[in-house]
Amino acid sequence: MKTTKCWKDFELLDATGGQKLERWGEITLIRPDPQAIWNSPRAKSASWQSAHATYHRSASGGGSWQMHKPVPEQWKISYRELQFIVRPTGFKHTGLFPEQAANWDMLDALISKTDGEMSVLNLFAYTGGATLACAARGAQVCHVDASKGMVSWARQNAEASGLKEKPIRWIVEDCRKFAARELRRGKRYDGIIMDPPSYGRGPGGEVWKLEDSLYDLIGQTAGLLDRDSRFFLLNSYTAGLSPSVMKYMLELLICPRLGGRVHGYELGLPVTATGGMLPCGGSAVWLGVNDNLSTF
C-alpha cells in the first residue's frame, strides 16, 4: 500500500462504524466510508463530537450536510507548493482525494528525471490535483474532463497555486471522444493519467459505465504512447476493480507493443487515532523501458 507522510493541512483523525473523521485545514468533517466496517477502541470520542459538519446519506440517493458549527463556503489547503480550494459538495466530496498525493509524489519523481520536458494527458481530470503536480515540475499538460464545473474548479486551483501561466490546455469534452480525435491526429504523449468514475455522463449526454468501457478506452488511449513514452497511470475507486485487475489490463494492452513493466498497488491514508491504514482505492502504473523508480 502506498501513502504519503507529507500532508500538513489534511489528516484522517479516525475511522470507525462506516464513517471517517477528517481535518481539512482548520475544519473537521465526518463523512461516510464503506471501508471503515470496524469499531475502533476510541469510537466516537470527544474529537468526533467537536466536528464542524457531518454528511448524512439519503435512503433515496445522495445526501446532505448537517452543520454543527459555521463552515466557510470554501477554503484553501496546501500540499507542498500546491494550493487547493475545497468545499463540501452535495455528493459528500470536497473536491480533493488526499490519498492521491502518493501518486503526485510519483509523478513529481518521474517528471523531475526529465527536467520537466514531458507532455502529459490527464483524462477524467476532476479538479486537477495530478494536473498541477505535473505542471509544477514543468510538464505540458492537457487536462480533460466532461464537467465544465470541474474544469473551472481545476483552473481556480491552478491560479491559487501560482500555475495560471503554465502550459496547461483546459478541455471540456467526453474523454473517449477526445482520445479518439487525438489518435486520428497522430498525437503522442510522454505520459497519460486516467482516473475514470464508475458511472458518468459526458457534456453531450454520453453515458460512461466503467465495467463496459474501461478496457476498450485503455486500449485506444495506449495508442497515444510510443517507445519514448514514460508512464500510464490508472486510478480507480470502484471496489470490483482491484489493483491486480488494472495491472493485468495495462500489461495486456501496453507491454506487448512497448515493453516496460507494470506495478499495481493500493492507496491508503494513515489513521491518527489507531495507527492503522484506511484503504482508499488503488492504482496501476505502466513505466517505460527507460524508467526505474526506487519506490517500487
Structure notes:
By secondary structure, the protein is an alpha/beta fold. The protein has two domains: 10-80, Golgi alpha-mannosidase II (Immunoglobulin-like), CATH 2.60.40.1180; 97-287, Rossmann fold (3-Layer(aba) Sandwich). It is 25% helix and 31% strand. The protein is built from eight helices and 16 strands. It has helices at 46-49, 101-112, 129-136, 148-160, 175-184, 210-222, 243-253, 255-258; strands at residues 10-16, 19-24, 27-32, 53-57, 63-67, 75-79, 82-86, 119-123, 140-145, 168-172, 191-194, 199-201, 207-209, 231-236, 261-270, 277-287. The longest helix is centred in the middle third of the chain and has 13 residues, at 148-160.
Number of structural units classed as domains: 2
Structural class: alpha/beta
How many individual β-strands? 16
User: Helix and strand succession?
Assistant: EEEHEEEEHEHEHEHEEEHEHHEE
Q: Sketch the major β-sheet.
A: 7 strands, mixed
Shape: globular
First and last CA, distance: 11 Å
Mean residue pLDDT:
92
Strand content: 25-35%
Assign the CATH superfamily of the largest domain: Vaccinia Virus protein VP39
What is the C-level CATH assignment of the largest domain? Alpha Beta
Radius of gyration: 19 Å
Which key phrases capture this entry?
296 residues; alpha/beta; Immunoglobulin-like; Rossmann fold; 2 domains; 7-stranded mixed sheet; 5-stranded mixed sheet; 8 helices; 25% helix
